[in-house]
Inverse folding.
């Protein structure tokens, strides 16, 4: 298995070909958040094509139905064209389903995880925290937290904590957090204004902060559960200004992303780094790595600090603890 032949323009097909020795994933279960648009669709399709049983999250059954069509079409195409997958034919039917949850509501995350675990009580090999919002006007979530922090970090923190027992019981034990190069913009996390960000709100700062939280979350999961329990975590920057739905919040962002689109990665090129993060063995991608263009890259200096990562972890546990199961609470409180 190698990522050396992969580059910024590698697609999911090339990532699957490069990591062919990890395939098929026929006994693996994967959960991808936010696969109703953008990078999540291609990520879910690639892993389903590789044989995994894939569950994706959606905010409604209607958006899930539309996404399922797209994911199925892309996965079928990959199975017919990627040589390592063609060699595995005949393929068993694709195993893709969805669970409805809204990461901006802690109660909804808990209900969604309960629905997922009652349907799939088996171990969860790969959790991909992909869903995200960008550039939103100042908005508070159902629980009263600034929306970038709520969706990009806190909802995923609760989801991950609830699913941690299932991930730790699995063979692969991998958690991938979609961060961004925007994690480098804050020089520090401002804990005084982290939850509501009411003082001089700037959407890009709120996004950058939430993406720094994603790296801290992955690093702290690694510190707590790697040596003791074999968990491996990877943070990912998929690429710059990829034309997905991420720019939907403002006409200005849509225009800027449109102008940049001839020079940016396609969606499958963006998703390839996530596919590598999900499939690579630890000898290729060490746990707690940060990937850009399918390769290990240093994070910002701020993201390497342990003190804010621990402080964020403790704060997040406090904010979600009423939604945790006793088993999850015991794990994340240690
Ligand atoms: N595109 C880029 O250039 C870029 C660059 C760096 C990092 N990233 C990161 O990559 C990840 C994927 O981004 P993308 O570009 O694929 O974005 P996208 O096309 O907007 O897709 C985002 C996904 O997240 C879901 N989502 C949004 N709010 C949610 C909520 N409250 N609860 C549950 N799901 C929610 C969306 O569901 P709905 O369809 O229901 O809204 C959608 O499925 C994000 O974490 C983003 O920060 C993207």
């Amino acid at each position: 298995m190698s990522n050396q032949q992969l580059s910024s323009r590698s697609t999911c097909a090339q990532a699957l070909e490069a990591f062919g020795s990890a395939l098929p994933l026929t006994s693996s279960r994967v959960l991808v958040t936010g696969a109703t648009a953008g990078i999540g669709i291609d990520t879910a399709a690639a892993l389903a094509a590789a044989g995994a049983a894939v569950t994706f999250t959606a905010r409604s059954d209607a958006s899930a139905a539309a996404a399922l069509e797209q994911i199925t079409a892309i996965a079928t195409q990959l199975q017919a064209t990627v040589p390592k997958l063609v060699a595995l034919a005949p393929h068993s039917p694709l195993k893709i389903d969805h669970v409805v949850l809204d990461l901006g509501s802690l109660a909804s995350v808990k209900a969604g995880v309960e629905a997922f675990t009652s349907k799939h009580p088996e171990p969860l090999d790969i959790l991909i925290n992909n869903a995200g919002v960008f550039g939103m006007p100042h908005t508070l979530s159902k629980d009263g937290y600034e929306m970038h922090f709520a969706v990009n970090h806190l909802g995923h923190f609760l989801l991950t904590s609830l699913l941690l027992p299932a991930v730790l019981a699995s063979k692969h034990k991998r958690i991938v957090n979609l961060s961004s190069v925007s994690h480098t913009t804050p020089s520090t996390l401002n804990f005084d204004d982290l939850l509501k960000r009411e003082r001089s709100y700037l959407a890009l700062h709120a996004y950058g902060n939430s993406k720094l939280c994603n790296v801290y979350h992955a690093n702290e999961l690694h510190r707590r559960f790697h040596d003791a329990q074999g968990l491996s975590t990877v943070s990912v920057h998929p690429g710059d200004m990829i034309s997905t739905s991420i720019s939907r919040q403002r006409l200005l962002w849509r225009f800027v992303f449109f102008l940049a689109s001839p020079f940016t990665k396609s969606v499958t090129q963006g998703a390839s780094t996530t596919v590598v993060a999900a499939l690579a063995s630890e000898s290729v991608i060490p746990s707690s790595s940060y990937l850009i263009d399918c390769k290990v890259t240093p994070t910002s200096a701020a993201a390497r600090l342990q003190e804010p990562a621990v402080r964020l972890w403790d704060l997040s546990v406090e904010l979600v603890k009423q939604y945790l199961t006793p088993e999850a609470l015991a794990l994340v409180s240690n």
Summary: The chain has a mean pLDDT of 96.
